[in-house]
Amino acid sequence: MGRETFLAPVTWSEDGWPKVGTDGIVKEEHPVPNLPPHIWEKESVRDNFDSPTLGLSWNFLRNPHARDWSLTARPGFLRLNGSKISFKEKDSPAFVCRRQTAFNLAVSAKIDFTPTASNEEAGLVIRGNDKNHYDFVITLSDEKRVILFREYLKDNVVKTNHKVIPDGDVILQIRATELQYQFLIQQEGKIPTMIATSLTKNLSTEVIGGFTGVFIGMYASGNGQDNQNPADFDWFEYVPDPAEIEMILEE
Length: 251
Hints:
mainly beta; Jelly Rolls; seven-stranded antiparallel β-sheet; 2 helices; 17 strands; 41% strand
């Protein structure tokens, strides 16, 4: 989950240099001043994309291209216009994401996307870095609309799984535990179907390096060409409490 933020006391030497901790040593615990409490409002688990701007929890990879996303092209939806850019280029694909902040969580998104060619895809991605990510996307295979799971590790595709799906909106869901990611798809009013599972450790800092942690979000790409159709996300849910996971499945 990346580097954690913490506070430590600082004193200043006579010549103006800061000294962090107690005599330069940062301990696991330090006494704190008796500050008044501040109660933070609990964030809604669902973003309906009704605001003209994205909330502060959302991030982009590098500097986003303005034409790749919109909250106004279809009001009430986040529209991603998949460009030719994917994670293979040192650039910014159409990827709107947020940090994974808990080991146990569930994320879901309702997506409207009709690919026109096998290079076009859109859905959810868990990204460790450009060379290590799990992709859960809608695309075309043998002229049929499918949900595709792709495990991309060490700059190579190491596992795929796909299932033919009917036309229309679907709900994509990723569940996480400390050890495993689960990838499910659901049609309105029907029971979710498990498509694949993968180990969380393969995207951990201990395995892939770095310090930013994992990001989970919505993605679209034409893999070398622009997508002919946009991907419209009606809503996105982020549930860090496993006890609330079933709420998503009942929508």
